[in-house]
Automatic annotation (TrEMBL), chain A:
Keywords (A to Z) from UniProt: Auxin signaling pathway, Developmental protein, Nucleus, Ubl conjugation pathway
Domain F-box, first and last residues per copy: 4-45
Localisation: Nucleus
UniProt GO molecular function: auxin binding
Organism in which the protein naturally occurs: Arachis hypogaea (Peanut)
Keyword Nucleus: yes
InterPro entries, sorted: COI1_F-box, F-box_dom, Leu-rich_rpt_Cys-con_subtyp, LRR_dom_sf, Transp_inhibit
Example GO biological process: pollen maturation
Name of the molecule in the record: F-box domain-containing protein
Pathway noted in the entry: Protein modification; protein ubiquitination
GO cellular component annotations of the record: nucleus; SCF ubiquitin ligase complex
SMART domains for the chain: FBOX, LRR_CC
Alphabetized Pfam families for the sequence: F-box_5, Transp_inhibit
Automatic annotation (TrEMBL), chain B:
Bias kind Basic and acidic residues: ranges: 29-49
Family matches, as InterPro entries: AUX/IAA_dom, AUX_IAA, PB1-like
Biological-process GO terms, alphabetical: auxin-activated signaling pathway; regulation of DNA-templated transcription
Claim: Electron transport is one of the keywords in the record: no
Location of the PB1 domain: 84-172
Biased composition (Polar residues): 50-59
Designated name of the protein: Auxin-induced protein
Species annotation: Arachis hypogaea (Peanut)
Stretches the record annotates as Disordered: 18-59
A Pfam family that the UniProt record links to this protein: AUX_IAA
Compartments where found: Nucleus
Amino acid sequence: MNYFPDEVIEHIFEYVGSHRDRNALSLVCRSWYRIERCTREKVFIGNCYSITPERLIQRFPSLKSLTLKGKPHFADFSLVPHGWGGFVYPWIEALAKGKVGLEELRLKRMVVSDESLELLSRAFPNFKSLVLVSCEEFTTDGLAAIAANCKRLRELDLQENEVDDHKGQWLSCFPDSCTSLVSLNFACLKGEINTGVLERLVARSPNLKSLRLNRSVPLDALQRIVARAPQLVDLGVGSLVHDPAMETFAKLMTTMNKCKSITSLSGFLEVTPRCLTAMYPILPKLTSLNLSYAAGIPGSDLIKLIRHCKKLQRLWIMDSIGDKGLGVVANTCKELQELRVFPSDNIGQHAAVTEKGLVAISMGCPKLHSLLYFCHQMTNAALITVAKNCPNFIRFRLAILDATKPDPDTNQPLDEGFGAIVQSCRRLRRLSLSGQLTDKVFLYIGMYAEQLEMLSIAFAGESDKGMLYVLNGCKKLRKLEIRDCPFGNTALLTDVGKYETMRSLWMSSCEVTVGACKVLAMKMPRLNVEIFNENEPADCEPDDVQKVEKMYLYRTLAGKRKDAPEYVWTL
Amino acid sequence: MARKGLGFEITELRLGLPGEPKSLVSTNKNEKKRMFSEIDDNGEKEKKSNTGGNLKTTESKAQVVGWPPVCSYRKKNSMNEATKMYVKVSMDGAPFLRKIDLGMHKGYSELALALEKLFGCYGMGEALKDPENCEHVPIYEDKEGDWMLVGDVPWEMFMESCKRLRIMKRSDAWQIEKTYIEIDEIKEKNV
């Protein structure tokens, strides 16, 4: 390859898209590093504190698309106190200063101020796509700036963000000249929107393929909007509540009948079950269905609906579908690849889904590779069966509602069941455990889970050995998050070099002490070891022997961060 | 602490290490800590203490922060429409009443925060834990018309029986309690 001129190598590199492959290319030799860095347009940064924006801009002058992730994953479950960090403003500021031709920005678990959105909207004339997932601190004012100033905007995708709705007219801020929208998702906004303005926006966006509405959009507006966008591929219904006027409902059904291209359906943030029949015309073509926010739909209605969805590849649903309903899914959705079953809010009801539902799915859906399953109980026998039926799992996340529940049939821990999963699923990359578990399960994981990259552990294990099995065995481990386990200093300190091969480690309510964290921080200068000290006054230094409530460590080239709040100690 | 009749035992969490005997009344220090963690739910700086005995503000089933692992956004937004329960809230000295949706909150700590936000009266969280020492005391009228101190019964029971809320000045609260005690004494005398 040394004899090829640079332009040829550049051209070949154009075909290499994935950032992992690109990273690999850059390590081959100096000239490949140089060519790769000059041609790289998309960069993924899994931890925004692992590197400074300046260094990023210096290395990749052609940067057009940036993905950033901020808070640790357990922030989703209220384990990270407010104000921890993950501010995007310094990044946007640096990108603006560096005159980067930014076109795409994707953020997850970051703090996004209106100020940063405003700067974003003004500093990058070619800006096309903004995707915000699980972010917070911005309001509809920031969205108004994006709408008003990004003349080439194609995508505005807001997923599960906490947005303060200032009841301004942000939608009206899209100028009449804006006709380039391809994707608009504002399902997470809580406030009212002007449906007339939305209709006109949709009418002048011929390329609109994806539209996800919030709950303020009623049935009649939905009908008018969808009527103007028969080319839609992905639809998020806001509210589907009974309209007293029967003609509106009939109109909606007719409109849905004309939507020949919709393959993805979601939303139903407010729904009257019998209104679901309006969706029946599009069900046979659906490949993706998300009913996980549609509270209050009885299992029987869900089952009726699912029978029409023979082409489903992705299904997100609530556990009110029940084991029986999952049996129907297994018989109907033979193409199913991803399943997520979420717990409904009903406390004290009869167990909604158990191991039986999962076994049925594994028997009927051989292509299943991604699972998130909240259930009331699980057995070893079931897991062993699932492992045999579905050897292709890439993501396997089990959340038993009673976190330390053993196998109800045998009263044994679930070690053997999960052991079967990791032994059978050679391509497993992500695993979340629950139920009663001893150190044995970690022995199995260390032995068999060769491709494992992310592991989430809660209320499991018996001794430091458990954690050590994992650290020693899983060579490809990148993220390890542990809560409420009896893992302590020996486990933490036995192989300190391991952490530089990983993105991050989270340990909360374990047996690790302040002193051990200090030792670790001293030995590994390229790790930031953060301890969260929420309860003592900020200037009070905890004892070395004191147990650490929460610790988050990550590799970094950026050194100690300067934006940590008072309660975070970087050792 | 489990109320067998209400079927909560299915979802009851045992917080001991695997293999430990299932004890309903646990004196495990960690478990008490976890219960107070529930109050920390919103990341507020609240004092953690280990007085496990008088946990008036926790629910009957031992709940733990962050389990089951459902993201907070999803938790807030998956509420069934049928669980909307708006009740009036009055505060002594405030010119008008407010309304609050009990169904929106998962427990006393969230309610305390919501009340604080509504009326700007800080210390509601502390009042729930230690009503003896706070300026404002939350009380509620139950289905039988009696005025009760907020925090004594499990959250679900409170949600079902609460008709309206009142944030009362502590001095007034003691006055009412004194009156009830006097009424009871009179009743006893007349029996």
